[in-house]
Amino acid sequence: MVGFDEGLTVLYADPDIAADQFKQAMSSSVVDDDFWFPPFLREYVQAVLTLLWKLKAPILQPASPATLVARTLQNVLGSTLQDYTFVDFCSGAGGPTPSIERKINAYLQHETKRQTTLRHGQLNGHASTNEEEEDEEEEQGPTAVDFVLTDIHPHLPAWRIASKRSKNLRHVPVPVDATNAPKDLLQLAGTPSYGNTVKPQHNKKIFRLFSLAFHHFDDELAVRILRNTMASSSGFAIFELQGRDLGNLFTVLMLGPLLYMGSWYWFWGDWGHLFWTYVLPVVPFVIVYDGLISCLRTREDEEVLQLIRQAVEADGEREGNLLEGWRFETGGQTHTWPGGKMQYFVGVKD
After folding, report:
1. Per-residue pLDDT tens digits for 238-252
2. Distances (CA, A) of 77 to 72, 167, 337
3. Cis ω on the peptide bond leading into residue 338 (within 30° of 0)?
4. What would the pLDDT profile of 201-212 be if each residue is shown by its tens digit?
């Protein structure tokens, strides 16, 4: 039986629920995905997307979108957060993953210190034995979790830089197809030739992340990705920063003026980026155009659940078998006032 947390609206999937505008948008490609789009311009666009994940505009944003994602994972996974290795699919230039890794591991470190302080307080008044001290060290365990960057087109220069900044951020240096992820994914991540060796963590479960990525897949591809995800991982999360409503469309339109006002500061010294922003404004055009298409392509919760059911049927399994033990949680939160919303769909196999 598919489980839903209390307080959530139960999702009833309808094969015909997709609106005409959604179907039309799915047949339209975003410029950044097109094969003819020059790689150097794609790098500039991805640099902007990474910036937008980390940006916290005064008054308009209560927290950066990356912070909201980290908090969502903390709230949904709770005490099981340390049980997972988080694998980000379709990472692009890195997106929010390096920021999410830092925030989640800072949170875990804080929680470990808090629990240690409480234990020391409870031991006050009597001397602890060596055996008690050893037991305490075992209970504390590791205070950090690993994050892994992957993509069908590895963005190695940016990933190497990000991986060097954190021992808990790694990357797979070869193409990874989300429809058929290799079983030795963790061993492939950060191979010695790229300067960051991974120790196989057989006790860790895989949790897949799709950050601002899932709307890029048409229904057929999305079904294949979900089928592989549910067969080879213990959890997944789909995060989108846009949706099919006027508030999100307005927020995307405002990105154009925002980039004109701030790019000189954010990308000072990258003269190519500034040229393609101010002289020939390709970068802001692509950000806004692709953003509007992405709004229309973003799926509602019911539509994601319908794809999950199609994935189960396509696998030749009865729905109750493959979905047994899975629970789904959905929600949203404002990331930019007044209309920018972060939406999430999280699946966890208990």
Report:
1. 999 999 999 999 999
2. 8, 22, 27
3. yes
4. 457 899 999 999
Residues ≥6 apart with Cβ < 8 Å to 286:
31, 32, 37, 41, 45
Cross-strand pairs, 342: 333
Distance of CA 236 to the CA centre of its chain: 9
Q: Which amino acid is at 28?
A: S
Q: Which residues contact 175 (CB under 8 A, 6 or more apart)?
A: 151, 152, 153, 154
Confidence at 138, pLDDT banded by 50, 70, 90: very low
Both tokens assigned to 255: 């990105």
Tokens of 174: 């070869």
Instruction: Confirm if 299 and 239 have CB atoms less than 8 A apart.
Output: no
Q: Token pair for residue 206?
A: 């895989």
**For tokens 């902007």, what's the residue?**
48
Partnered with residue 148 across adjacent β-strands are 87, 170
